[in-house]
């Protein structure tokens, strides 16, 4: 049963999701402005690409840093300060005098904005029973999957209407707003456990149960992302397709991922988490093997990739929420580092 203190956990869940969305938007909302940055801030296209890479690198370090801090300090306090810091650095990006300076600020921006992604699974676990937590994680994943599709569209609109600085202004203002809401509604957020479990990243690396869940999720998602990142060039240059073909593939994949993520909670209640994790993993693997076979036989129809993309994304949607939640449980109370 869920903790009676959180009989209406929707507010806390919404705040957690908003925090993770703002972190994800730090890449996709800024993406449309990147090609114009060399001319605006006097730099090269290679340096402009570092605007994205620096944010990702900072985010990776931030995940580890906030994981360690979250095991020692009240996560609600850390979340507020993370959002405030993220907002300040976002606003500072507007005044970057050069492209190298913007790259440095973007690294710090990614670093400061990682807290919500770190704390979300553990907080959701505290808010809901196991069955409902899987459903909540699936719903959060489905919302997050829309960001890569929608944020660039908003970014283009901001760039055309208000210039490259506007995306950073939006990130800054929204982050300050969410930080204020988290601080104001702190009592709605789950507090740290009364007794903290001692742990370390090394402990997770030597925990075979945790590694099974974590690595299977990482490899499944990694296989998908490797394919997606190279898909535009492959479709337009290798298959003589168009970007519309890529868009069709992406929209198809995201739609089925959302469907799978939102069905995962109910299906996990019916069949159990382990069968769902295995079923989803096998489905994604079959889809990716289909893509490999398509390449080996010299397939040339881009739209056929959209069909192969369905089991890849649907399987990830099925296995993601229960796998993620079981990894949190396998962390044995060390949710932040896990």
TrEMBL record:
Q: Where in the cell is it found?
A: Cell membrane
Q: Recall the GO molecular function terms of this protein's record.
A: transmembrane transporter activity
Q: Which Pfam families match?
A: MFS_1
Where mainly located? Answer: membrane
Transmembrane region(s) = 7-26, 46-66, 78-99, 105-124, 136-160, 166-185, 210-235, 247-265, 277-297, 303-320
Which InterPro entries has this protein been placed in? Answer: MFS (IPR011701), MFS_dom (IPR020846), MFS_Efflux_Transporters (IPR050189), MFS_trans_sf (IPR036259)
Gene Ontology CC entries for this record = plasma membrane
Point out the signal peptide segment.
none
Superkingdom in the source lineage: Bacteria
Could you list this entry's UniProt keywords, alphabetically sorted.
Answer: Cell membrane, Membrane, Transmembrane, Transmembrane helix
* Residues annotated as domain Major facilitator superfamily (MFS) profile: 12-338
For the keyword Cell membrane, the answer is yes
Any keyword Transmembrane?
yes
Q: Its topology with respect to the membrane?
A: Multi-pass membrane protein
Name by which UniProt lists this protein: MFS transporter
Q: What organism is recorded for this protein?
A: Hyphomonas atlantica
């Amino acid at each position: 049963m869920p903790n009676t203190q959180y009989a209406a956990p929707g507010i806390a869940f919404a705040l957690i999701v908003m925090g993770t969305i703002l972190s994800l938007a730090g890449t996709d909302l800024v993406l449309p402005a990147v090609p114009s940055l060399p001319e605006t801030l006097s730099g090269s296209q290679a340096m402009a690409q570092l605007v994205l890479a620096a944010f990702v690198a900072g985010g990776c370090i931030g995940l580890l840093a906030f994981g360690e801090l979250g095991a020692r300090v009240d996560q609600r306090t850390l979340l507020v300060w993370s959002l405030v810091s993220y907002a300040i650095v976002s606003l500072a990006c507007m005044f970057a005098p050069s492209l190298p300076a913007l790259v440095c600020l973007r690294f710090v921006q990614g670093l400061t904005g990682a807290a919500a992604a770190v704390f979300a699974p553990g907080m959701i676990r505290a808010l809901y029973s196991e069955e409902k937590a899987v459903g909540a994680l699936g719903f959060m994943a489905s919302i997050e999957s829309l960001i890569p599709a929608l944020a660039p569209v908003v970014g283009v609109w901001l760039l055309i209407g208000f210039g490259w600085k506007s995306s950073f202004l939006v990130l800054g203002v929204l982050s300050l707003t969410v930080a204020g809401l988290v601080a104001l509604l702190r009592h709605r957020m789950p507090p740290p456990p009364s007794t903290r479990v001692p742990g370390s990243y090394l402990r997770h690396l030597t925990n075979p149960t945790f590694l099974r869940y974590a690595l299977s999720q990482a490899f499944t998602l990694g296989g998908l992302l490797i394919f997606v990142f190279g898909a535009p060039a492959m479709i337009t240059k290798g298959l003589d397709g168009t970007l519309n073909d890529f868009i069709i593939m992406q929209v198809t994949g995201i739609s089925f991922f959302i469907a799978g993520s939102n069905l995962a909670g109910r299906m996990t209640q019916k069949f159990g988490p382990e069968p769902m994790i295995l079923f989803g993993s096998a489905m994604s693997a079959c889809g990716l093997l289909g893509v490999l076979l398509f390449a080996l036989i010299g397939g040339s129809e881009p739209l056929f990739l959209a069909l192969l993309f369905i089991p890849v994304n649907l399987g990830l949607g099925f296995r993601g929420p229960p796998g993620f939640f079981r990894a949190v449980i396998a962390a044995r109370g060390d949710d932040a580092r896990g």
